[in-house]
Amino acid sequence: MARIEKSTSQPQHDGQPSQGHGVTLEEAAVIADGAEHTKPSLWTLSMVRLYGCLFIGYLCATTNGFDGAVMGGINAMTSYQKYFHMVSASSSTGLIFAIYNIGTACSVPFVGPVNDRFGRRAGMFLGSTIIIIGTIITARAVNHGMFMGGRFVLGFGVCFVNVSGPVYVGEMAHPSWRGPLSGLYNCFWYIGSIVAAWVVYAARQKANGWRIPLYCQLIASSIIFIFAWWLPESPRWLISQGRTESARAVLARYHGEGDPEHPLVKLQMAEMEFQISTQGSDKKWWDYSELVSTRAQRRRLICVLSMAVFGQWSGNSVTSYYLPVMLENAGITSQSKKLLLNGINSPLCFVASITGTMFLDKAGRRPLLMCSLACCIICFSILTPVSKLADQNPDNTAAANTSIAFIYLFGIIFSSAWTPLSPMYVVECLDTNTRAKGKSLAQFFTACASAIIQYSSGPAFQHIKYYFYICFIGWDVLELVFIYFFWPETKDRTLEELDELFQARNPVKRSLEPKDLRTVLNTLQFESKAEDA
């Protein structure tokens, strides 16, 4: 029988690859066919166990979502404004929002190495610990400097969970359901957002009521802190550490119904053992060169960093942190009404994000993102003139109601695609050896982009009000064109099979071709060598 040997050409990571998969072409075809026709029920024992593990990862998004809504909410609270002598739209408000992202940016050099050296669980544990410390400082702040310091610490810790959480979820998710399971990660952003918005609303009349929602930020981070070490480690991280049998055991328990010979377990093990290096740059905390070492890696990085920026500059950061100000521009001046409308926004976006997640594997990543952007452009195009009408004539209730409707509609449309895909697409575009460092670099760009938009939005709303929306119309058009030409489709492939896609001369064109046996064989880099039977 002809045995197929592993190609002598190296995969696109530094260092030597781990031990070869050692399977024949015929065996690979059988395994691939078995895996293709093996899609488990969503409610098997293995899947239920997996949901419990992924839930802890999902809570990492909740910690970030809480901050977005809590700061937008307390920024409209009279007790907060009087205590710190703040104005809801000003450069000082923008700085308080932005310092969170400055903290995130400062933690980036440490996040990748912690995840690579100690594992994904360690990143979640350390991040939740820092968040708890930052929350206590912020909630007990007695002056402006202490409040700013607490938010810096919060941002520093959130970066750890924002990298470790989605990476863990993406690497642990069952390949047959990776789209919905990974997409759900960022949907939990709205769990934090919903809780924060309604706690702010409930505390609006209390003296020093602004402290209450800040203390609630302890809930999700405390759960992560308690349960992180009880989770199974990512099988891909285990492979990168040379712990092959531990990885096989995790895959069997959570993907193979306890059977190490399950087709999906065998296929993933073969692909991971070939693709993941045990001596790659992830073992060198200072080495980021692998992110740009080949054409394929540079193409990956372009997708990752553009997603990091696009996810913040499409208009969503404004609606998250400055929704009460946007409502004020639409003619809503009552504190209670602004906080009530702020509280309604998050549940609507949460439902939209869950709905969009269910279509990730059916519609694909690219169509959802591009359709979402096209609709966002339309929303801002209508929101700009009607906000002007509402502001110039407070008695024009039709204009005010239309403005509110399109603010909500923008949030719903954006959330249906960008909320589930923002972290998920980044994880998919990176290989295991660069995933933690690449995701932390993406987090740095996200933090910088978010800090810029948050700091500039306050003065922009103060000086040009609703005309600020025009900036997003033009930018979203550029995003749509860029995605069409540069972002490949990633659905229907395992994380390792995406390597074959990025190695292609035209990744976008290759990604639009259906997955077939060639995809698996190219992933394993077979080349024939006849052996005597």
Description of the structure:
This protein has 533 residues and is mostly helical. It has a single domain (45-230, 288-486), classed as Up-down Bundle (Growth Hormone, Chain: A), CATH 1.20.1250.20. It is 72% helix and 2% strand. The protein has 25 helices and 2 strands. The chain has helices at 25-36, 45-74, 78-84, 91-118, 120-139, 144-172, 178-187, 189-202, 211-215, 218-227, 235-240, 244-255, 263-275, 295-313, 316-321, 323-329, 335-357, 360-363, 365-392, 397-429, 432-463, 469-486, 498-503, 507-511, 517-524; strands at 3-6, 526-529. A two-stranded antiparallel sheet has the order 1-2. The protein is globular, with a radius of gyration of 24 Å. The N and C termini lie close together (5 Å). The model is unreliable at 1-20 and 527-533 (pLDDT under 50).
